[in-house]
What we know:
Layout: H1 2-10, H2 19-27, H3 33-42, E1 47-52, H4 58-72, E2 77-82, H5 85-99, E3 128-130, E4 133-137, E5 143-148, E6 161-165, H6 172-178, E7 206-211, H7 219-232, E8 238-243, H8 245-249, E9 252-253, E10 256-257, H9 265-274, H10 276-284, H11 299-304, E11 306-307, E12 323-328, E13 337-346, E14 350-360, H12 374-389, E15 399-405, H13 412-419, E16 423-424, E17 430-431, E18 454-457, H14 459-475, E19 479-482, E20 490-504, E21 510-522, H15 525-541, E22 544-548, E23 554-558, H16 569-590
Amino acid sequence: xxxxxxxxxxxxxxxxxxxxxxxxxxxxxxxxxxxxxxxxxxxxxxxxxxxxxxxxxxxxxxxxxxxxxxxxxxxxxxxxxxxxxxxxxxxxxxxxxxxxxxxxxxxxxxxxxxxxxxxxxxxxxxxxxxxxxxxxxxxxxxxxxxxxxxxxxxxxxxxxxxxxxxxxxxxxxxxxxxxxxxxxxxxxxxxxxxxxxxxxxxxxxxxxxxxxxxxxxxxxxxxxxxxxxxxxxxxxxxxxxxxxxxxxxxxxxxxxxxxxxxxxxxxxxxxxxxxxxxxxxxxxxxxxxxxxxxxxxxxxxxxxxxxxxxxxxxxxxxxxxxxxxxxxxxxxxxxxxxxxxxxxxxxxxxxxxxxxxxxxxxxxxxxxxxxxxxxxxxxxxxxxxxxxxxxxxxxxxxxxxxxxxxxxxxxxxxxxxxxxxxxxxxxxxxxxxxxxxxxxxxxxxxxxxxxxxxxxxxxxxxxxxxxxxxxxxxxxxxxxxxxxxxxxxxxxxxxxxxxxxxxxxxxxxxxxxxxxxxxxxxxxxxxxxxxxxxxxxxxxxxxxxxxxxxxxxxxxxxxxxxxxxxxxxxxxxxxxxxxxxxxxxxxxxxxxxxxxxxxxxxxxxx
Length: 606
């Protein structure tokens, strides 16, 4: 701290002009010119918003800003806020990695910040990882806490800086509930017969919204428009920066072109080929145009129901599990895909569903990457059934149901015919067939060995009902997806350590909470494909609109501008899965045993 005071003395105590130099000298962090511009202009503005390309340095910019504010200003409280806990914790962990000199791309990092952290015998490095939120405190009274989740648990706090990470998908209610953290004027002083006119003004309380582009229906976009207008009109309290991938492909450093790009153009081009809509949002900052009330599957709902976890490629446990398959076959022109979900029996909400895998049966040897031949798809699907059923398990013991789209275009009924016969796997082991005893009742006597775990889903009969069910289950937060995949060969997965940490609230009350730790888990090729396919299913889903007809009728289909340009097979598989979950939950209620009545209670005594 003595070094800081001496340095501020040389700078005439003006912290408004020194944040970048401070980060360079004490943290060892240097910025590209675009990042430096955003950092400097954000320093003293109450209202700030960054739209920055994926991998363009959102956490790299916000982390040093939070660190510098905490060190330079006494008692500076910062809250990192997000609907999803993993996101707010990710920004917190960026601070931790900078402090511990664990980022390879920062070659000049120092251990200065570690010396400012309050440590104890139970917390030897100063960073606390409690389930309710990560936290650290500095010797000058400053603190940083990550918050997420239930709005009602995040009220009544006081902050000098609110950082809304990935705020493109943050709901307005969440921002409204947490804005009161900043209401008290930072320059307000009272008592001791002090003339407050003689006191210097304090750095204003700030709100900082950070994200890549989202949709035009999002609260983030409304702030983007409002803040931009205020900034262009000359209001000095507002600052907006928009840094897309082109800036980072040819970055400038001290006015000169940097020899190494922050993002490779080949990477951007590859993402554009895989998922153009997503790539335009995340790399070129193009906000998606949503369909208003017709777009019933909101992107924010999907994001809030996503979590950091590994996909499940096979069943390697001996526990009883319930896997559900949704298969939309195709032969020539459309995608042929299968989504796999697991039904989890939650102690609080009852049966819920996790989307664990997505497979596209594409023939990579074909120039146009059309689907595999029917026999190859059948073989791949049967292998998946065996993989998820697990070893040393009776046939389909862990398979809840295989649903197949029975539309004429995909020849779904033909695929169901192939499943009725007993079949052998590659090891020569014989397995029972599968049958839909309701739709194929005339074949039940001919295939008595077939198990009734196949369900033919006719679009004419079920399509609207399926999408209605999926919408209900999503809005009840009963279906979860894997978190958005960033294309790396690993993901960070939260794990309980089995230890407890003691946390202290603003009123000094202490309590013990379970500690969590993020583990870096390498992904194999199949896991990476699974995460990409689940992401594609989410992208297709939010482009399914409810088109209104006459007499109150409606139908579900792709938006008009996406017809012919985007597939909907994965979204249709999600609809089948949502329908099945609703069916399971209804059966849980209807099959609930009736309470026994003691008739002796109704006997009358003369």
